[in-house]
Amino acid sequence: MGRNHLRLASTLPGMRLVGIYDQNIEAAQQLATQIGTTAFASPEQLLEAVSAVIIATPTTTHYDLAKLAMNAGKHIFIEKPFSGDPVKAAELALSAKEKGLLLFVGMIESFNPAFQKLQRLLKGTKLHGIDIKRFSPFPERITDTDVIFDMMIHDLHLLLLLTSEPIESIKAVAKKIKSPFYDHVITTIHHNNGLISRVEGNRVFGSKVRNITVTAEKEVFDCDLLNKRIYVRDFLTPSPSALAIKPFDQISAELNYFVESIKDKALENSNTNSVIAALKLAQEVLAAC
C-alpha cells in the first residue's frame, strides 16, 4: 500500500512528495532513487520537512508514529486499521482535534464508487438483511494479525456506514488455517430493529471476492466491489438489472479528499469516529470467536 501512495503522491495536484522514511534505510534509498525523491534517515528529519504525512507502516507502529507527527504539528493520513486499538485510536483523534490537525484513516473501500452508489440507493430505505463477503488468497505479507483486523475491518466499517441501527447480539465462528491467527471468520450480527447482518472474511480462498448483498423492503441489491458493479432485482422479477457506475481510482480519491480537507481547513471531514466504531465492533467480533 505504501508504494501506491508514493506513486500517487508524486503526481496528484495539491501534493508534493518531499521524501520517505523506512526503518530499512537501504531499501528506502533504493526506492527514493527510483522515484526521484529523498530518503530521510529518521522520521524526525522527515517531519521537519513536510506539512502532512502518510503513515503506511505495520499497524503496531501506527500509534507511536502518529503521536510523533502530531507533536510536530503535521496533518496525518494513516492507513487502516488506524492504531488497531479503539482506545489508542480515540486518544489520537482527540489529540488531533485539540491541536487543530486533520487525522484521516485510509479506509479505501468507503471510496469505492460502487459502494458510494449503493449508499445513495439505500438512503431512507428500510433494510432487512446485509451480507458482506471478502475473500482472497493467503497474503504472505501479513504476519502479525488476524483476518478481522487485516480484511474484515473494511466490511465492518462499511456495515456501520450502511446502518446505524444498534446491535443486539454478535455471534462468530473462526478458524486458524495457515497462520497462528484466525484466517476465516464468519460473524452474524442481530440489530435491535430486526435487521440481520452477516460478515465473512476468508484470506485462504482461491480467488478474490468482494461482495455486498442488501435485502431491502422491495428490492435486493448485489454490489460487486471488486468489479465496481451493482445489480438490482425486485421480488417479482428474477432477472437483475445492472446499474451504470463511473469508475475512478480509490486511493487517488481518498488522498484528494485528504488534501482538499487540509486546504479548506475542514477538520470535520475526519473519519476517525466511524473507524473507531468499526474497531470496537472488530474487537467484539474477535471476542465472540
Provide the fold topology.
Blueprint (H helix, E strand, L loop, with lengths): L1 H8 L9 E2 L4 H11 L2 E2 L3 H6 L3 E4 L3 H13 L3 E5 L6 H14 L3 E4 L6 H10 L4 E9 L11 H16 L4 E9 L8 E8 L4 E7 L6 E8 L2 E6 L4 E6 L6 E3 L6 H14 L8 H17 L1
Parallel strand pairs: 1-2, 3-4, 4-5, 6-9
Antiparallel strand pairs: 6-10, 7-8, 8-9, 10-11, 11-12, 12-13
Helix pairs in contact: 4-5, 5-9, 7-9
Pfam family, one: GFO_IDH_MocA_C3
GO molecular function: nucleotide binding
InterPro entries: Gfo/Idh/MocA-like_OxRdtase_N, Gfo/Idh/MocA_Oxidoreductases, GFO_IDH_MocA-like_dom, NAD(P)-bd_dom_sf
| CATH architecture assignment name of the largest domain | 2-Layer Sandwich
Q: Can you summarize the main beta sheet?
A: 8 strands, mixed
Number of helices: 9
Q: How big a fraction of the residues is strand?
A: 25-35%
Task: Report on this structure.
The protein is α/β, with parallel strands linked by helices and 289 residues long. The protein has two domains: 2-106 and 251-267, Rossmann fold (3-Layer(aba) Sandwich), CATH 3.40.50.720; 109-247, 2-Layer Sandwich (Dihydrodipicolinate Reductase, domain 2), CATH 3.30.360.10. Helices cover 38% and strands 25% of the residues. It has helices spanning 2-9, 25-35, 43-48, 59-71, 86-99, 113-122, 147-162, 250-263, 272-288; strands at 19-20, 38-39, 52-55, 75-79, 103-106, 127-135, 167-175, 184-191, 196-202, 209-216, 219-224, 229-234, 241-243. An eight-stranded mixed beta sheet has the order 7-8-9-6-10-11-12-13, covered by helices on one side. Strand 10 (209-216) and strand 11 form a beta hairpin. The longest helix has 17 residues, at 272-288. It is globular. The model has no long low-confidence stretch (mean pLDDT 93).
